[in-house]
Amino acid sequence: MTKTIVVKIGTSSLTQPQTGQLALSTIATLAETLTHLRQQGHRVILVSSGAVGVGCVRLGLTERPKAIALKQAVAAVGQGRLMRVYDDLFTTLQQPIAQVLLTRSDLVQRSRYLNVSNTFGELLELGVIPVVNENDTVAVDELKFGDNDTLSALVASLVEADWLFLLTDVDKLYSADPRSVPDAQPISLVTSMKELTELQVQTGSQGSQWGTGGMVTKISAARIAIAAGVRTVITQGRFPRNIAKILQGEAIGTHFLPQPEPTSARKRWIAYGLVPAGKLYLDTGAIAAIVEAGKSLLPAGIKAVEGEFDSQDAVQLCDGNGQEIARGLVNYNSIDLEKIRGCHSRDIPRILGHVGAETVIHRDNLVLT
Questions:
Q1: CA separation, residue 289 to residues 267, 300, 302, 313 (Å)
Q2: At what angle do helices 148-158 and 110-125 cross, to 10 degrees?
Q3: How do residues 311-362 score in pLDDT, each as one tens digit?
Q4: pLDDT in the model for residue 11
Q5: Is the dihedral of CA 154, 157, 158, 159 positive or negative?
Q6: How many helices and strands in the chain, by DSSP H and E?
Q7: Helix axes 24-39 and 68-92, enclosed angle (nearest 10)
Q8: What is the DSSP string of 328-366?
Q9: Which of 200, 270, 194, 189 is nearest to 228 (CA)?
Q10: Which residues pair with 318 in a beta bridge?
């Protein structure tokens, strides 16, 4: 049976730990593994980090640049080198590939989001393996994915993948970093994200000198993917052949089971594709109505408004402690919302001087996070 498979490999798996040089044997094995999956009829997408790390080595830099202009320049150098290596290896295997560079803005606008989806669809139909990376050369902080774990989860959601493999420098998720905590407990299966809280999993920070990720970003990525119905696996990047073994049923890595009822594509776009422009703080009654009863958000339930935004922008809905519970598209800008918050819907025309929507966020444009 044909499956759609997204594989993300991090900088720590692509490069030698001491020198930062490309780990060519690992990349070659990855190319062979993905090509074999394509030959079996599967649709395959590779999300590859490494442009900045490779660029640093190419230019003789000893640490990852912090200034955005320098980082963009280094990424431009590294991306060309990285794609040359991929193209040489896949061409030897007679497997066509395509470079796809994305920024967050490609997923923010609904029309561009659909265009990206259509492009992936055509490439996969042609038997091509898209090689995806964030377009670090032009991306600015406000519109960055931040890490390729998040990018891979959004791509998996976009193409409605069956599997997402997050290849990293450890064999699975542990209760703490096994490199510094000897008695850290391995976790093989996660059926609910609540389990990780109950197990008090310590995710740490970024993993390697050249990378931007770490276990915390992988768990966040898994949360996005399983909401889209994508089974997600964290496993060791040095052994790409494990991907095929996992697909055949071997118990390798940490598996995150997908939600039995995936969130709709539109609501996934609202929850994870858009960049929130502000926050609304809700009272307990509004939170209960949204979370437990699936209701729309009314102005009476809003305690405070934060940020400047326009009508139809995405905002975060938070409880009194600032904990996000949902996201949605607002029917009012921040100025008008500040005027009508805490009021009954019937008072909106009197307060604003014109007839407006009864709801601040309709339930069709609201998704729990």
A1: 18, 12, 12, 22
A2: 80
A3: 999 999 999 899 999 999 999 999 999 999 999 999 999 999 998 899 999 9
A4: 87
A5: positive
A6: 14, 15
A7: 60
A8: EE-SS-HHHHHHHTTS-GGGHHHHHSS---S-SB-GGGE
A9: 270
A10: 281, 324
Task: Give the C-alpha separation, 220 to 93, whole Å.
Answer: 34
**H or E element at residue 155:** helix 148-158
Residues whose CB is less than 8 angstroms from the CB of residue 225 and which lie 6 or more positions away in sequence, other chains included = 153, 156, 157, 161, 164, 232, 256, 258
Sorted by sequence, the CB contacts under 8 Å of residue 265 that are 6+ apart come out as: 157, 160
Q: Which helix (H) or strand (E) segment is 113 a member of?
A: helix 110-125
E strands, 77-118, in order:
97-102
Contact (Cβ atoms closer than 8 angstroms) between residue 5 and residue 15: no
Amino acid at 333: N
pTM: 0.85
| Residue 4, C-beta contacts closer than 8 angstroms, at least 6 positions apart | 42, 43, 45, 124, 159, 160, 161, 162, 163
Q: Tell me the three state secondary structure of residue 270.
A: helix
